[in-house]
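Continuing the batch. This is chain 6 of the set; chains 1 through 5 are on the previous pages. Same settings as before, nothing changed between runs. Recording input and output for traceability.
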Amino acid sequence: MPSKSSSAKKSKPATDEVVVEEVTAESAKSKKLVKGKVLSLIEDKKPRSRTAGKEGTSLPHLGARPVAPAPAKEEAPPAPAKPTLDERKAAALNLFEDDDKPKVRRRPVDENAQQNALPPISLLNEPPPKPIVPIVHAPPADVPAPDFEIGESGEKIIHLKPPIVVKDLADKMGLKPFKIISELIAFKVFASADKAIDIEIAEKICEKHGFKLERDKREKGGGVHKPDEVIVVPDRLPEPPPDEKDTRELRAPIITFMGHVDHGKTSLLDALRKTTVTAGEAGGITQHIGAYCIFHNGKPITFIDTPGHAAFSAMRARGANVTDIVVLIIAADDGIMPQTKEALSHAKAANVQLMVAINKCDLPAANVMRVKSQLQDIGLAPVDWGGEIECMEVSARSGLGLDNLLETMSLQAEVLELKADPKAAPRATVIESSMVAGKGPVATVIIGQGTLRTGQAFICGPHWGKVKALINDRGESIKEVLPGMPCEVIGFSDMPHVGDEVVVMASERDVKRLSEERIEELRQKKLNVPRRSTLEHLFASIEESNKKVLKLVLKCDVQGSVEAVAKCLTDIQTDKCNLDLLHQEVGSINESDVLLASASDAIIIGFNVKVENKALTTAKREGVQVKLYSIIYELIDQVKEAMQGLLDPLTREKVLGHARVKQVFKVNKGFVGGSVVTDGTMQRKQRARVLRNGQAVYDGGFETLRRFQDEVNEVRNGMECGIKLSGFSDYEENDVIECYELEKFAQTL
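Output for chain 6:
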C-alpha cells in the first residue's frame, strides 16, 4: 500500500511537467511567429538600392557633382557606430517582451528646465523637494508713491482738477488702477483706467483709503482747454497826422445823382456814359441802385444812381452815406418836389459836398429862374446869385452842358483831395445785392481802401466769402479793383445785407470762425427776446385774432427792392386788416415758396422776378395765387385792394315804407293783418318788422302780400293790403309794419 501511494504521488508531477512543457512550446511557437512577422516587416521596409549588385560599379545619381579629393586632416575621434540590422531587430522584439506588454517610452528629463508641473496628489502632503535650479520671478512693478498734502488736522489731502480720471486718482493715492476699478464696481460704476468718474464717487473712494479730495477749479482758458483765440477784424486806416508823410494816393471820386422821380437822373447818367439804362427799366423809372464808372481826361469817376420814388428812401440814404459829392437833379419844368427835399436832407445828414444840376432846360416849359428861386428859399443859394452852390443847366437829350458838368465835378474832386491807401487791408461797402442764377449771391460794392483781388477771403456782416470773380460795370471780368471803383463781387456764402462792409482778412479759417460766431450771436438775440404777458396784451391779442389777415410771400430781384417794398407794405395804415409778411427774400419764385404759401394760405408777390417751371406746376396743383409786378406803385395799389377785399361788407338799413293794421282777419293758416300803407311802399321780397307802441315786437320776412285775392310784389302808398308775416300771428289793431331793405357796401381801409 505504501508503494502505491508513493508511486501515485510521483506520477502527478510528471503529468504537470508535461503540461507545462506543452504550454511553453506553444507560447514559444507563437513568439517565433510574431518575431518572424516583425522581421519580415523590417526586411520588407528596407530601402532597395538603385545601383547594381556588384561592388565598385555604382554610378553617381543624376545631377551629382564630382567630389574633389579631401585633403589630409588630423585624425578625428571615431563617430559612434550605427546599429546593425540584428540590433534593430532585437530592439523591435523588445517591444513585445515582458509578458507581451508594450513598454512606455519616456522622454529624457532635462534637469536644467524649469519644473512647472504640479506634483501628484499623493505627494501633496509631503514637503516639496527642493528644485535644483531656483525659479526666477519677474521683478515687481514700481508702485507709484502717493502724492498728497498734510492738512492742519493731519488729514491727507489730494488735489485734482476735474475731470477726474481713474489712473490719475490711483497715482495720487499710490495704488494700482485695478484696485480703484474693482472698488468702483461696488458703486455700480464700470470704468477703465483712462475714463473719468464723477467727483462724488471719487470723494467716497478717497475717504475709503483715508484721503480727502479737494477740487481745483479750472481757470478760464486753462487746463486741457486751449485759450479762446480772439479774432480781430482789421481796422480802417486813420488819416496820417499833418507832420508825417502821407503815403496815400488819389482815388476816384464817388458822385451820387439824387432827386425826384422822373427828373432825369438815369437819363443824364446814360448821356454821360453813352448807354441806355432807362430803356431797360420798367415804366421808365429807376427801381434799383446802380454804380458806374467813366473816365474823364484819363481819370476815373464813379457814379451812383439812386431811385427817386418815395418807396426807395433807404436807397437814397445809403447812396448819400457812401458818396463824396451829391448832385441834386431838378427838372426845369417841375421844380423842387417832395423827393428832392428828402434827398437834400439825406445829403445834409451825410455831410457831403452838394451840387445842383437843372435838367430838361431845352423844354419849352423850362423855367430855370423859378428853380433857382426855390433853391434860394430852401437855403441853397447858387453861385451866380452870390451863394456857394454850383448850379449848372444841362439837358440829357440834347447833351447841353454835359462837358461843363463833368469839368465842374472833376474840379470839386480835386479840391476835396480824396485819397486812399491801395496797399492797406481792403474794405468795401455793399450798396446792392441780388441772387443771380449760375452765380449765387452777387453784391455791388464800392472799394473804400486797399485793392480788392480775386482769391481773397472776407467777412461781410454775419456772412463770409471768398472772392471768386470781380466784374466791372460793363460786364467785364477783372482781376483787381482800386479804391473808389465799383464792381460786382461773386463768392458770398449767403445773401449779404445792403450797407454791410466787406472786410478782407488774411486767414480763411478766421473768417469762417468769425462768421459762425456772429450768426450764433444773432440767433441768441432772437431767442432771448423777453416776452411778458399782460392783461392789455391778452385783450390786444384777442382783438388781433378777430381781424382779417392778408398773408404774403415777397420775392424781389435785389435786396434794396426787398427793403423798399416791405417798408411800403408795412406802412399801410389800417385797423381793420392786418398784413403778415411770412417770407421776404431775393431770388426767383421757387417750389419751397409755393409750398409755404399753400401751407399758410398766403399769396405770393413777385417784384421783377420770374417763376420757376417746377414752382408754376406746383402752384397750379396747390391752388396758390402768384402775382408778378414790375412797377412798385402798381404792387402797392394791388395789395391795398386785396386787403380791402378781405373786409366784410357793411350792412345798412334803408326804410321803404310803413303800413298800419286796421283789422285782423282769421284765415285757414293763421291770421292776416288788414293794413293801409301810410307812406312809401310794401315790397314782398324785403324784410319787415312790427312796431307796437314804438317797440319792435317782430322782425322777419313777408310770407304773403295780397291785394284783394291776388298775390302782389309791391303795394304803394294809400292802398290797402293783407300782410301775413312769416311765423307771426299776434297782430293787433294800430300796429305799424315797417318795410326795409339791407344795403351792403364795401369797407375802406
